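Thread: sanity check for a docking pose with pyridoxal-5'-phosphate

Original post by kr_44:
Hi all, I'm comparing my docking run against an independent structure prediction. Below are the sequence and the ligand SMILES. Could someone generate the full complex and paste the structure tokens? I mainly care about where the ligand ends up relative to the chain.
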Amino acid sequence: MNYLSTRAAASSLERKRFCEILLEGLAPDGGLYLPESYPQVSDATLSQWRQVYHQQGYAALAFEILSLYIDDIPAEDLRAICAKTYTAEVFGTGEIVPLRHVDEGLWIEALSNGPTLAFKDMAMQLLGNLFEYELARRGEELNILGATSGDTGSAAEYAMRGKKGVRVFMTSPHGRMSPFQQAQMFSLQDANIYNIAVDGVFDDCQDIVKAVSNDLEFKRKYKIGTVNSINWARLLAQVVYYFAGYIQATETNLQKVSFAVPSGNFGNVCAGHVARMMGLPIEKLVVATNENDVLDEFFRTGVYRVRGSADTFETSSPSMDISKASNFERFVFDLLGRDGTRVKALFGQALNTEGRFDLSADPLFVQAAARYGFVSGKSTHADRLATIRSTFEQHGFMIDTHTADALKVALEKRTPDTPMIVLETALPIKFAATIVEALGREPERPARFEGIEALPKRVQLMAADVAPIKALIARECGY
Ligand SMILES: *Cc1c(COP(=O)(O)O)cnc(C)c1O
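Reply from moderator J.T.:
Ran it for you. Here is the predicted complex with pyridoxal-5'-phosphate included:
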């Protein structure tokens, strides 16, 4: 399997293998990597995968899917990496992504029983093992530098802790994460994990990361990398749970299902798009946004308009508070018939100069819902509270704020004959304040997180300045 950039001209012959793009971020032309084509899953293969999932489990299913896209890691090594990643010990249950039946034709797929209680663990845990494997093979090291306001940073740290050849330098705005999130990250005592509380806001953290990455000499010398959501390996790992959800909700391949996905950077639902392109019988992909409705606006109107920071709201589903959806370019590439020149004009030029582009008059956009199954909707703080409350009253369990956004839109979009699977992306304990607001009581806390706020913390406070961070990286690398 070869990979190309979403901004590559049709005449370009530039192609890469999986392990080449694994440690890279954007393609050199600013585009995102995608496979040259989507492997097609026949009815017979899907039936065989049912058996694999039911008899051998999630890790074996992951191997079947990943091996279609990764042909530069020997099969037995890849199988071992999957087996080491998707264990009941790490993900809390043998099914890894169990379905919870909510109502007639309505399910919630649990994706957040990993180490940080958010779905990002599903991909990040695999990435940690792939990185360790590939760095050892090359005899290289990597210094991951990131900025986080919560979920991504902790998922990255829990995936990379103790991994050989990798250090993580994670900046976060001092005092702005919830006590639970701070405790999750700062209690890690692993020598290769560096928590840096920056005296500033999240944008200051991001600016520092950008400044370091733009210093090309420093970046090369200290092998600076990232683990952001545009990484193809992360997206690929997420394709697996669409298959696992489908297999659990159906008995035959003649049945279709729909998925509702709480969306921010469009990584999660883009994995659903890939699964559908491979032939998984998905009827609809329901994109649910919060008040930051860039994506809902696009699917309703054909206009993609990125927001400035003044128009980006801080909401009670904070992991979806985005001003632009960094993975969206992948879908647009497929939508426009894989015309990289046009994608480059839209994302490389129009967005930079006008902050928007408009596909409303394009017949390809008009066919988007029918051809690709996308529909969308939006959920607000009041909707979130109401959905958390009604779910608890009617069904007796708590859902987190992001999952509530998806469930709200799922209920609007579902049809009687197609089962709907709502992807649960975090556990309620991570967003306790809103749960208390909705239900007047604290969310349940998994036993292994009892008392984590009292654990010793390993974090260093730094000024919002590039120089001390560079100095820290250089000192720890020792070269
Ligand atoms: C990251 C995240 C999302 C958004 O996922 P995208 O892949 O960015 O669309 C939704 N919910 C939670 C809890 C998250 O951490």
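The two ends are 37 Å apart (CA to CA). Hope that helps with the comparison, let us know if your pose agrees.
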